[in-house]
Design a protein that fits this description.
By secondary structure, the chain is of the alpha+beta class. It contains 2 helices and 4 strands, in the order E-H-E-E-E-H. The chain has a single domain, classed as 2-Layer Sandwich (Double Stranded RNA Binding Domain), CATH 3.30.160.100. The radius of gyration is 16 Å and the shape is elongated.
């Protein structure tokens, strides 16, 4: 499994990288066919009404690729760790639905 972490207008610190790796490891521990994962972290630096606290200017996006399917999620929050947490929750829901669908197909085939 290949995990790529990119930062846009943001430097990726070792703490953020460790946090992402830990959370994504927990998400995909039940899926052995994950080909690759890409995480893009960015920060909106516009000086306007959105740049005050509570403006959700830390953005996290991720793509998880499995054979024949891709999962995408996007989350924003006041700080990067919160946006990563929201992102992983969204991806976990998508992957759980996919896993249940796969189990239902296996049961129907038997």
């Amino acid at each position: 499994m290949q995990l790529t972490i990119r930062g846009h207008h943001l430097s990726i610190t070792p703490a953020i990288e460790t946090n992402i790796k830990e959370k994504f490891k927990h998400i995909t521990k039940h899926l052995d066919q994950v080909n690759s994962m890409q995480v893009k972290l960015s920060k909106d630096h516009q000086i306007d009404k959105r740049s005050r606290p509570g403006s959700s200017n830390h953005i996290a996006e991720a793509i998880i690729r499995l054979p024949g399917i891709e999962f995408f999620a996007h989350a924003t929050a006041d700080d990067m760790y919160t946006s990563i947490k929201l992102l992983t929750e969204k991806l976990r829901k998508q992957l759980d639905r996919y896993r249940k669908m796969q189990l239902n197909h296996q049961e129907l085939a038997i």
